């Protein structure tokens, strides 16, 4: 999945002459936390977050000098903008955001602003990737960390004529194990879980004893 | 009692049968009717027939190409893409002969129930063959082909401009009905179910509250696995009363799946039959208080067809017809001896279950607390509205 598949294309942005107050109102109005700042050519020249505005605001404990908020955003915006490209993988973008501890990435094409992604979009994508937004049942299996395990379990699922909504594979707590998590389009997992147990794999979920 | 409540059933509804070993088994209907007869609570001569829903009625909710696909599948004309595109021919919803007709008869039963209440002077009506809440506009899902409740709701919207409150106590999330009216402020849906973390269909989180104009008109209470009677009923009573008070419906439709019982093989909730006696009691009360008695009840899930469903669904009719004193009597010997040989499990001898049928649950208090938090969160949109 690429960044361009999940990015918001209808970006709300400002130019550098915009006043801090206007920028603040824009964020409130659209209920967003970040505003890319662009020049006439739509090139990204800065980014402004609600935190930048807060930092620039007077304390509630002292008398406000409202004229401060009429100053342009280019005095407080962050000019060192970290961006991503439309053909980056979603996981790369997530990694970049984590590394720089930021929660939004403007997307640029040839220096021009064409989209934006935020941590919310990434969470939405995670929900989608795990298949949890479609009617399905969750099945979690522990298998040996060897080649061919996924294919073996998948062919068993096929034998039961069940469509796979999504699948995740991740390392188990012990190095010699892997965990397979499926979202399956079925209401009745029992016949399949029995088949899986029969070939000797451990079904971690649905595992009722664990919960009692 | 007469004309207060109507019981709808037609033998055609029994033909909704996927296969011999499929968990969805309409024998439940026969077992329930027989039990009601044997306790003298239902005279079979007064049973009112269902009907087959017409194509134009199905089209109130379903897509034309989907209906065509179901018809084709009924006639044995399927292609491999049917399973992925229409959800037909999967392990959950295999194709069976005359699938379209059988499914349309279940829908017709619920529509007949609506007609009894809106046209023929009945206060309440029961179609145990309905309650197929997973059916989507263009896709079969979770044993459900056509969504009778969604169709009946749309039918009531158009024909009577009624404000409809739908409440679903099946252990599975009532997803099909919720999504059909997700943006509609004239239809309010409540679903209490086992949390999607544990159970199909995975949706029904507390944050699903509706969208656009319909925001604040969908309510979900996803309950922890191993939730017991008291915790379930506490949440049920609270949300049902609060939402009814806020929404002021013209009619209540209850989906009465009987799979939240601890014997149910498909779910992990831990109810006893007490739950199924209390659930309709409140629906009955609120229907009289807010809707001049207009209450339509349908069946739904329920996969322990011997020990659970007949008692649960009979009790629904007993409540509707104010015959609940029967619940204090034993289950008639004649019913037990008629069916025991067919059931692998020992049939129950009383209406109420012993407490001992539930496993001891060490996390009980934790589960209760979690459910209480979920309930408060589910009620958030009502509280917000009050503040404004």
TrEMBL record, chain A:
PROSITE patterns named among the record's database cross-references: ACT (PS51671), CBS (PS51371)
Domain ACT: 138-211
Record-annotated CBS domain positions: 7-68, 77-134
InterPro entries in alphabetical order: ACT-like_dom_sf (IPR045865), ACT_dom (IPR002912), CBS_dom (IPR000644), CBS_dom_sf (IPR046342), Diverse_CBS-Domain (IPR051257)
Entries under SMART domains matching the protein: CBS (SM00116)
Superkingdom of the organism of origin: Bacteria
Swiss-Prot/TrEMBL keywords: CBS domain
Membrane found in the keyword field: no
Keyword Transcription: no
Name of the protein described by the UniProt record: Acetoin utilization protein AcuB
Organism: Evansella vedderi
Automatic annotation (TrEMBL), chain B:
Pfam families on file: Hist_deacetyl (PF00850)
Keyword Transmembrane included in the entry's annotation: no
Domain of life from the UniProt record: Bacteria
Keyword DNA-binding: no
Gene3D superfamilies registered for this protein in UniProt: Histone deacetylase domain
Keywords: Acetoin catabolism
Domain spans labelled Histone deacetylase: 22-318
Pathway: Ketone degradation; acetoin degradation
UniProt family annotation: Belongs to the histone deacetylase family.
This protein's name: Acetoin utilization protein AcuC
């Amino acid at each position: 999945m690429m960044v361009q598949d999940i990015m918001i294309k209808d970006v709300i942005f400002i130019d550098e002459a915009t006043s801090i107050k206007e920028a603040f109102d824009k964020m409130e109005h659209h209920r967003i936390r970040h505003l890319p700042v662009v020049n006439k050519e739509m090139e990204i020249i800065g980014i402004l977050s609600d935190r930048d505005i807060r930092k620039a605001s007077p304390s509630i404990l002292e008398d406000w000098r409202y004229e401060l908020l009429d100053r342009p955003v280019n005095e407080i915006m962050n000019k060192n903008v970290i961006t991503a490209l439309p053909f980056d993988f979603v996981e790369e973008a997530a990694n970049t955001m984590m590394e720089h501890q930021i929660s939004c990435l403007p997307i640029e094409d040839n220096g021009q602003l064409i989209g934006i992604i935020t941590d919310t979009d990434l969470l939405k994508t995670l929900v989608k990737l795990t298949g949890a937004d479609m009617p399905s049942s969750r099945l979690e299996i522990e298998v040996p960390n060897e080649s061919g395990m996924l294919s073996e379990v998948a062919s068993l699922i096929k034998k039961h004529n069940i469509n796979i909504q999504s699948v995740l594979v991740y390392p188990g707590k012990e190095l010699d194990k892997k965990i397979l998590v499926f979202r399956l389009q079925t209401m009745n997992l029992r016949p399949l879980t029995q088949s899986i147990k029969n070939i000797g794999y451990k079904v971690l979920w649905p595992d009722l004893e664990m919960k009692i | 009692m007469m004309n207060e409540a109507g019981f709808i059933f037609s033998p055609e509804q029994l033909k909704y049968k996927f296969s011999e070993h499929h968990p969805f088994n309409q024998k439940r209907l026969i077992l329930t009717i027989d039990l009601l007869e044997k306790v003298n609570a239902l005279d079979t001569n007064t049973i009112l027939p269902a009907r087959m829903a017409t194509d134009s009625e199905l089209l109130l909710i379903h897509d034309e190409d989907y209906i065509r696909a179901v018809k084709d599948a009924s006639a044995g004309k399927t292609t491999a893409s049917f399973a992925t595109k229409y959800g037909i021919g999967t392990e959950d919803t295999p194709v069976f002969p005359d699938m379209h007709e059988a499914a349309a008869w279940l829908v017709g039963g619920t529509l007949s129930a609506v007609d009894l209440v809106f046209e023929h002077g009945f206060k309440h009506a029961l179609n145990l063959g309905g309650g197929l809440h997973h059916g989507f506009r263009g896709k079969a899902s979770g044993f459900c082909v056509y969504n009778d409740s969604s169709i009946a709701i749309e039918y009531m919207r158009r024909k009577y401009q009624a404000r409809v409150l739908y409440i679903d106590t099946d252990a599975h999330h009532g997803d099909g009905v919720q999504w059909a009216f997700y943006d509609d402020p004239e239809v309010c849906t409540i679903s209490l179910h086992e949390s999607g973390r544990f159970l199909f269909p995975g949706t029904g989180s507390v944050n699903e509250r509706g969208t656009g104009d319909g925001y604040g008109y969908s309510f979900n209470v996803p309950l922890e696995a191993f939730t017991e009677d008291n915790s379930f009923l506490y949440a049920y009573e609270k949300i049902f009363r609060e939402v009814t008070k806020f929404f002021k419906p013209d009619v209540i439709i209850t989906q009465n799946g009987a799979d939240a019982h601890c014997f149910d093989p498909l779910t992990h909730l831990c109810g006893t039959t007490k739950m199924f006696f209390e659930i309709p009691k409140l629906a009955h009360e609120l229907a009289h208080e807010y809707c001049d008695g207009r209450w339509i009840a349908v069946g739904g899930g329920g996969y322990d067809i011997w020990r659970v469903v007949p008692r649960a669904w009979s009790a629904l009719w007993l409540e509707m017809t104010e015959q609940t004193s029967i619940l204090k009597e034993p289950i008639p010997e004649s019913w037990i001896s008629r069916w025991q040989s067919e059931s692998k499990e020992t049939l129950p001898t009383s209406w109420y279950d012993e407490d001992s049928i539930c496993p001891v649950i060490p996390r009980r208090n934790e589960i209760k607390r979690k459910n209480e938090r979920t309930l408060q969160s589910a009620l958030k949109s009502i509280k917000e509205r009050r503040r404004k």
